[in-house]
Model the fold of this input.
Amino acid sequence: MITRRTALMGAAVAALLVATPASAADDLKLPRQAVELVAPPFVHPHEQATRQGPKIMEFKLTIKEKEVVIDNAGTKLQAMTFDGSMPGPLMVVHEGDYVELTLVNPETNAMPHNIDFHSATGGLGGGALTRVNPGEQTVLRWKATRTGTFVYHCAPEGMIPWHVVSGMHGTVMVLPRDGLRDREGKPLRYDRIYYVGENDFYIPKDGNGKYKSYQTPGAAFADTTEVMRKLIPTHVVFNGKVGALTGKNAMTAKVGESVMIVHSQANRDSRPHLIGGHGDYVWETGKFINPPQKDLETWFIRGGSAGAALYTFRQPGIYAYVSHNLIEAAELGATAHFKVEGEWNNDLMKQVQPAGPIPPGKSSAAEPAVRTR
Ligand SMILES: [Cu+2]
Done:
């Protein structure tokens, strides 16, 4: 068990090991823009291409430790979150902008936290400069020098994986100033954007095989770590719980619309697949300076990264978006839905004959379908 006191002592020792640069006066003479973050799968309004010069983009993340239900059986997780959602919000900026993040750890929390931005350069991605105890806040600024989708996650000394698999990860998207391009340099745009963050959870069980629940994150630490070390997740879910993006929570689109799907996994590999559709353009590693791959059936998200896929829906219906480890999709929770409205295209697909009895005569199920001689 990790108590608040032992967690804070660990943080104090770690603080001595990291040199802290002197805080400089604000020397940047750039316009500022404050961005109101929204919970995934939605994304705050943003320009895809911009004529404006670099700005200081102001974001605020409030860390929330809270109990959440992660499946339909009522299984509980003592979650640790950025802004109360799993994943944390997607932040969108343009190359050359500065991200200025206020990270708030309210007094009501028990744990120290920080943030490691994979898109930032130096200082453990900001992790070394953002450690906040309950009741503290800090401000970090970093320059977005590389385009792409990049994971951010909590990374406190001695308990990094536990904080990540308790919910603390999200994504930053750094767009090229003149927007996205295909491999020939033709501009690409999206009509909608959704952010799918995948979490693997490791919920301890009691002697009867029932999932255990705990009063605080710290109380769950020892048992959870034991399950984590076996590397077999009890749940693999999109956006915090089984069914967070299915049924009435499905993401929506219309036939003819191009939808950007940003997919992150901070800890484990994943294989996004849109059943009945494709990835028209896929930045599998999420880095926009590399030309997108075309026409993918399944793409690969490396643990600790975020990728982006652009697809124009051509048929209406319900599409399942899964991790194509189908056991994870069907048994552990890694399934989302897109509900797409519009006109059916018979040229692309048509039921030529509905299911009916096999006619008697020449061909029967007992006969081989293909003869070699
Ligand atoms: Cu944390």
